[in-house]
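ARCHIVE CARD
CATEGORY: sequence design from structure
SOURCE FIELD: tokenized fold
FIELD CONTENT:
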């Protein structure tokens, strides 16, 4: 569920990390070069002021530069922390999905309820 927006999340990060827009742009430079994405002062200003929402490429650059989850940066109720995927974690995720798919509907619902309970307990 979406409870915020990119503007509010950027402002929150700026306050928490004592960053100015120019600081964010500096943090973004290496990722802009890596992904061949142009992110200028005007772009960032419009994002911070809520006039425009960043596209996927610029959102990725911002997320990596600020070390936050892109979905969180968009305003969704997800963990703020970034999760980088590796081949090992992908294998485990696939294994979980395969095992889950072998369960009957009743057991799947039990697992879903348990996960919801654990996430609620963890504050997510």
């Amino acid at each position: 569920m979406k409870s915020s927006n990119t503007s509010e999340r950027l402002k929150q990060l700026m306050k928490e990390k004592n960053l100015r827009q120019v600081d964010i742009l500096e943090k973004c430079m290496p990722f802009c070069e890596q992904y061949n994405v142009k992110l200028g002062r005007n772009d960032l200003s419009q994002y911070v002021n809520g006039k425009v929402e960043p596209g996927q490429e610029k959102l990725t650059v911002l997320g990596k530069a600020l070390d936050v989850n892109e979905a969180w940066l968009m305003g969704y109720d997800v963990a703020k922390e970034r999760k980088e995927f590796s081949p090992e974690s992908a294998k485990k995720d696939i294994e979980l999905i395969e095992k889950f798919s072998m369960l009957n509907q009743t057991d799947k619902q039990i697992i879903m309820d348990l996960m919801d309970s654990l996430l609620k307990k963890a504050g997510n």
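CARD ANNOTATION: The two ends are 12 Å apart (CA to CA). The chain has seven helices and no strands.
SHELF: design records, drawer C
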